[in-house]
Amino acid sequence: MDLQQLAADIKRWGHELGFQKVGITDLDLSSERAALQQWLAEGMHGEMAYMERHADLRTRPDELHPGSVRAISVRMNYLPAEAGFAKTLKNPRLGYISRYALGRDYHKLMRKRLKQLGERIKQACAELDFRPFVDSAPILERPLAVKAGLGWTGKHTLVLDEQGGSWFFLGELLINLPLPVDAPVEEKCGSCKACITICPTQAIVEPYKLDARRCISYLTIELKSAIPEELRPLMGNRIYGCDDCQLICPWNRYSQLTAEDDFAPRKDLHAPELLTLWEWDEATFLKRTEGSPIRRIGFACWQRNLAVALGNAPHDPAIIAALEARRGSVNDMVDEHIDWALTRQHNKSASTSKQVLRLTRAVEKGLPRDA
């Protein structure tokens, strides 16, 4: 069999299935082991116990599917044409949801396409044995993508491509064929530290090192307990994930829009009013997030995130009334965040009253005596 030709065919078939870039790499990730162990030892994975549970396996992908010798790494763009970043982030009464989660859950879509790619390869080579992965096992997909030439690791730890920025999903197909591998690309972050500077919670503690415990994506998605109080004011109106480090990245000027209808923003989740989302009960939440990655955080964490955003919003009697009305309806964790939000709202009210009083007195002092 002409493995060189097969590799070229695989890339062509991948493009036909909707993957914007396809690369091939071996499975040696031993160079990642020390950094991963150090990151875990420092506790930067927070409550993500699964990261530690299968730490050794993460750098040995061949053990995930015995007999595998190569990974076909793919990327799929998800940035919608009507992303509306500024409109949402600049309005504290709206809820900001990470752009990857505005449409349908990408896991099933990408896994189905990867399976189709595997079946297409098997038609050309009956000896093929394969297994697709899309965040479905302890596998270091970013280092595999970098080795496969899909991009380089940016200082924010995401994969960057000079022709596509970072607005894309990654997936892998582990196979048993010794295909020729692709070469990694040159890193091109240079001296830029924009992502480190812009991070609202300073979660990028140094280039290429993320403290998940401070990351808004972790706080709003992975964390299942109370959000540290000192980080809540820094979250603003971000209720599910955060895109700031990608928004500021110069390479994302070259991002490509998605062609997938499934990734188009849902009306209910695109620039939504915080108070409208707060009115959802659990049944409504489950219905409106059906087929969405948001659903997996559960209603309690959704309410927790919204409470923080409402606390960060400008003072509004309607927000205070809505928060008070929901207290005691979910659980103690949500109530604790509601109480924090109410305190924030009342403090803003008092601050506003003092400012009005000072302004009134200043104006009065400037008026003539007979005014």
Automatic annotation (TrEMBL):
GO cellular component: cytoplasm
Residues bound to tRNA: K224
Record: residues binding cob(II)alamin: R58, D135, T153, V159, L170, S217, C242, D243
InterPro entries, per the entry: 4Fe4S_Fe-S-bd (IPR017896), 4Fe4S_Fe_S_CS (IPR017900), QueG (IPR004453), QueG_DUF1730 (IPR013542)
Ranges for domain 4Fe-4S ferredoxin-type: 177-209
Pathway annotation: tRNA modification; tRNA-queuosine biosynthesis
GO annotation terms (biological process): tRNA queuosine(34) biosynthetic process
Reactions it catalyzes: epoxyqueuosine(34) in tRNA + AH2 = queuosine(34) in tRNA + A + H2O
EC number: 1.17.99.6
Cellular compartments annotated: Cytoplasm
Cofactor note: Binds 2 [4Fe-4S] clusters per monomer.
Family: Belongs to the QueG family.
HAMAP family the UniProt entry points to: QueG
Name of the protein in its database record: Epoxyqueuosine reductase
Organism: Pseudidiomarina insulisalsae
The gene coding this protein: queG
